[in-house]
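Hey, I'm writing a tutorial for new members on how sequence and structure tokens pair up, and I'd like a real worked example in the thread rather than a made-up one. If someone can provide the structure for the chain below, I'll link this post from the tutorial.
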Amino acid sequence: MLAVRLAAAGEELRIVDLPLPEPAGTEVRVRVAGCGVCHTDLHIVDGSQGRVELPLTLGHEVAGAIDAVGPDAAKLLRKHKLRIGDAVLVYGGWGCGTCADCRAGAEQRCALSRAPGFQADGGYAESMLVPDPRYLLGLGKLDPVRAAPLADAGVTPFRAVRRAWPWLRPGARELLIGCGGLGQFALQYLRILHAGADIHVAVRELDADRLERAAELGADIGLLDGDPAMTLEALGGQPADVVFDFVGTDETLAHASAVVAPGGLVQLVGEAGGSLRFGFDSPPVESWLTTVAWGSLDDLREVVTLARRGRLRWEIDAVPLRDAAAAHARLRSGDAGARIVLVP
């Protein structure tokens, strides 16, 4: 089968021909329909992403069809109401199953996890193995190529918005820094999960086209860059109750710290490598700063349900798998308006 692999950090992606993997035990083979291209994939290529085992087939946003199962998987497949041939989305937080995080339903935080595209071969291939049917979510009539980004770009902001729930009171002021692949989903979740609530949402972006998209998705105001004073003015002269940083540079984190309210929340989602000085009153006193780790299996179920009901809007750009290197180059240059999905 065709696969795109990385042999070592800093090297070029290689197109290789591998034997079709045969499922054993509880494993399920998924025939890949599409695999999203994520900025994290670029970090893996650059060597800046932690806990990566190379050589590796990249790709963690995977959707496709159940193709074959191991001898111990058939009963489990029926338990999860799945059959060979079903269109599925692959959940990537493959935890150990026994640690405290796994038992709490947060396998994506498991210190021993083996995630596709990080420690296990992922979806930049014609087929891949999934360790257990419980990591597969039926897509129904959803196009699996279009659905692939839900496995990360869709679920990570859902978790961010859900974790911000205590701060999302009526009248709350929200700031989204970045409204690209993940930010556009976060904006929709804010409007869907808090329908009817009087919350004020501002979006700060460097791209005017993304600001137009944000307005279509429900942003109250768009800021084309701008300093903290401009952001505070856009928020009605008051600091933000919640700041979602989908970029994660030194500059965006500093901006978030400057505009969040005392007792407010800054959620760092973007992995651009930035850091923030932490002191008694910077960020503001008693404010909260946290990160978001992917999403749980339950989070992804809710995202798929919303997508199947037609509640979410997103665009993809389908690109042949053989053009993975060119797709990475486009993502690096910023020339990717929609989520790139590699199609075998």
